[in-house]
Amino acid sequence: MLYMWKAKWIPLAVLAALALTACGGGNSSGDGEVLLYEEEVSGGAVEATEAYETVTVRREDYQEVYSDTGELEYTDIESVYINEEDAVLDSIKVKRDQRVRKGDVLAVYHLETSKTKLEKQKLVNQQARAQFESGLGSLKNSLSQAEQEYKSLSNAAEKKMKSLEIKKMQKEIEAYKKGEKELLEQENDYARLVRMQSATKLVAKKGGVVTSVSKEMVGQDVDSSQKIVEFRNNDKWLIKVSDPDSMLRYNMKVKVRLGKNMKNYQHEVTGKVVTASDLTDAGSADQDANNTIYIDVSDGDKKKYDFRTNNIYIHAVSFEVKDALMVDARAVGSESVGFTNRSFVWVLENENLHKRFIVSNYNNEKDYLVAQGLSEGQTLAIVE
Fold first, then answer.
1. pTM given for the model
2. Which of 52, 31, 28 is nearest to 356 (CA)?
3. Coil, helix or strand at residue 163
4. Parallel, antiparallel or unpaired: strands 352-363 and 367-372
5. What CA–CA distances, in Å, run from 61 to 3, 28, 109, 325, 379?
6. Run of H or E including 143
7. With 90 as the cut, is the pLDDT of residue 10 above it?
8. Is there a contact between 125 and 187 (Cβ–Cβ < 8 Å)?
9. What pLDDT is recorded for position 293?
10. Which in 30, 85, 96, 306 has the greatest CB count within 10 A?
11. How buried is 259 (Cβ within 10 angstroms: 0-12 exposed, 13-18 middle, 19+ buried)?
12. How many CA atoms, within 13 angstroms, populate the side-chain half-sphere of residue 174?
């Protein structure tokens, strides 16, 4: 794990040179092999007049650890509305945390459609029905007359012509009858409106556990925008966490802990990151504009452990390097050399400071992991 060496303060000698050059190769007094940039040459040491804070080059296993709390976000939620005009909510038949099954009655309501509106709809339907029946009757009479005429004909050519006429009329009748579908729908809607003037049941289309009910709307007019009941499937959820530093990656395995806190936990299971900003480059964000990441666990663990009432903690090793050579970031400087920026440190040897370029394969705000240029145990001065 990461730790910070205690800084110590030491007095150094008087500054003896103004021009500083890189010190390395055979002139370095470090006790380990130092691999430098190809073009780097050794230079003279520099004495100092000031007392500098120093740190030591250390070797240890490096880890970046993600630790945070998580919360359940349910993925199968059903919201129930009354999609009718003139609806009045009479009662709600379920309560919060109640388990419901498909077909269970959730609420009862009725419609308060005005008598004028119902009478108008009834009259429109009656007129449409009468017009339809009249037209159908006219077509049928024409067909019957044509069939009688056909029977009276003896000329084969005339009978053939009349037969074709009859078939055409039969097709017209069949096409006309198809128009009755819209009329039947209007009549059914009216019958439904009449029935719904009395108590009408609002039933569940799927099962789940009730999460909210709108008791305050009982006895009031409601419309299709007002949620009456909401319920969810408690077995379908993901763990939502905040990832401001983008340390979690898609398909990454993490530890999911249940208990009082991150260290004092009763159960630990394996989870997997199922969404991440590094996958879409456009992950969702929480109220603090941090990346929101989702983690899933196996169905077996969901059934075995109580995720709903326990605190949830996520622990993951985001990045790890074994036996890494590390230095305090405060001891590392940077300068432009040609078209590149190169990192350097001040090595303290025999009360002299030596400027030495290093190669780092990873760094953060606190530490540099050094690939070339230093050896374990060397002392570096923090020169600001």
1. 0.59
2. 28
3. helix
4. antiparallel
5. 11, 27, 67, 9, 20
6. helix 115-152
7. no
8. yes
9. 92
10. 30
11. middle
12. 6
